[in-house]
Amino acid sequence: MQNKIAKDLLSIGAVFLRPEQPFTWASGIKSPIYCDNRLTLTAPAVRNDVENGLAELVRREYPDVEVLMGTSTAGIAHAAIVGHLMNLPMGYVRSGAKDHGRGNQIEGRLEPGQKVVVVEDLISTAGSCVEVVNVLREAGAEVLGIVSIFTYGMKKGLERLAAASVKNVSLTNLDAVAEIAAAEGYIKPEDVARVLKFRDNPSDESWIGGAL
Predict the structure, then answer these.
(1) What angle do CA 2, 36, 92 make, to 5 degrees?
(2) pLDDT 10s digits, 113-133
């Protein structure tokens, strides 16, 4: 599944590798990779693979799940589609409480004690999804874990997930994407090591310009 989803994401440009012309993240970090998994929603064949893959992960890894909760905003559509496929209720968690109406941060019905799986599109440093987990726990939910489409596997992200005692299972990851990208000519074979060096230490820009 990792390789199939990696091929899918590369084929529609949802994951785009450009080690020769790095992207700049909002944090200022230079990156050889850009991810926009929202593009999966406008590519029906890839969307089918992704949503069925997420449903398979939930069934396999979290068989006791009672509710799916998407992250705002990228995880909402995926949680809704997977919820439909699995005949499960779903909702989503806002980045902050509303300043009007009932002031909800959690949208959708959630009862204390319910077993929840969080649906996320992308995990880098894991800060936002850990915040979602904490909000759900504060509301009395039992968070079984997270499913996501793609993860970088960054050290900071892994450490944050471990510190929060929450499991994440992703459809694919940077290792698989880099290998498939090299095999199919998206990047040069020697670029794989550069991409993975970025993943291992994003603040070290020595990978830029071909340095290893």
Answers:
(1) 90
(2) 999 999 999 999 999 999 999
